[in-house]
Amino acid sequence: MPRRSTRLSLTDETAAESDAKRKRLSTGSTVKSTAKKSKYFEGSSSDDPEDSDDSGSAYEGVEVSAGGSDNSNSEPDATESEEEEKPKQKRRGHPASKKTQNHGSDSENEEAVPKPGKGQELWREGVKTGLGPGKEVFIKKPKARDPGGIDYVDDTIHPNTMLFLADLKENNERQWLKAHDADYRISKNDWDTFVDSMTEKIVEKDETIPELPAKDLVFRIYRDVRFSNDPTPYKPHFSAAWSRTGRKGPYAAYYLHLQPGHCFIGSGLWMPEASNLALLRETIDQNSARLKSVLRGEGLRREFFKGIPDDERKAVKAFVSQNQESALKTKPKGYNQDNPNIELLRLRSFTVGKALPDDVFLGPNAQERIGNLIEVLVPFVSD
């Protein structure tokens, strides 16, 4: 008698199971099936903080048995379970994330959204800003300091300009200046108008000075920090220079410096280029009497050399002392140590200056008082 085929036996069993399924479907009964747990289902193995929430499954409209058993005796294999769970994992957390964005005030969603830590981006999805739907934030534009009943005029400096420079020295940062841009603009305009008015006075005293606009005379407030040990981005002062070519060029200039507690007036050549310095030293070596005669001037000695007597050696010594900081310690190349003008030849800057009280710029006769000092300096600059 031939043995019954195993294949036929399996076929019969498969057919029997199919008949049983059709009967269950015809009676209308529902069979719940729980997928075998895998790494895609375990919340503890997920990197997403929302997957570890204990509030329940993030899948909406999917029946899942918490006990891990059902009415069916069949168990799907691991491969089939993983294939079914993978596409679901892509959707997991998305409804909750969307819910968090639309209803950021719910207590449940506040637990689901992690607080941003140090260095995390505040703009990333899910971070609360504290603003509800339809709310707006209005940032008021900073206003300038109240003038205090004092009008801004062209021929004097307003007290608020001094206050701004004092504040800038204490808060020399870009963010601070950005927040006080209104004060900066008004203070800079105050200085520019003062310089424009001062130009008319200087042109009257020295005919070699052209009448240039303030933008060609005023120095920028921004510092060049590329080769400096000082990282502060701004100069805590306003300044301007008048020469035959404005604030730039190889010519001697008149200089004004506005800084609370450190205002001063100066003139001459500060650290000229090597070629110009060589010509100047050659001129002094060949004809030093011209420079010494200017230094002995009565007005220069009275206003800039502390009233020294009319003595050539004392006048030269006072001039050298004002430029000693940048002078050479030895003789310059090409000159002998016993040169009678060696003190002047060692210099690398040829300037004279005088400190001014703040009241000089704030007073009603500011430009007249400064103009008188410019008149004393004219021979030193133009001769």
Report the structural category.
alpha+beta
Mean pLDDT: 78
Please give the largest β-sheet. Answer: 4 strands, antiparallel
How many domain units? Answer: 2
Strand runs, count:
4
Structure in a nutshell:
The chain is α+β, with helices and mostly antiparallel strands. The chain has 14 helices and four strands.
Outline the structure in words.
There is one protein chain. This protein is an alpha+beta fold and 383 residues long. The protein has two domains: 29-102, no CATH class; 159-382. The protein has 14 helices and four strands. It has helices spanning 6-27, 78-91, 94-102, 107-112, 159-170, 174-179, 181-205, 274-286, 288-295, 298-303, 312-322, 342-345, 358-362, 366-382; strands at 238-242, 253-258, 264-269, 350-355. It has a four-stranded antiparallel beta sheet. A hairpin with a 5-residue loop joins strand 2 and strand 3. Helix 5 crosses helix 7 (181-205), helix 7 (181-205) crosses helix 14 (366-382) and helix 8 packs across helix 9 (288-295). The termini are far apart. This is TIGR02453 family protein. Residues 1-142 are annotated as: Disordered. InterPro entries: CHP02453 (IPR012808).
Structure keywords:
383 residues, alpha+beta, 2 domains, four-stranded antiparallel β-sheet, 14 helices, 41% helix, disordered N terminus
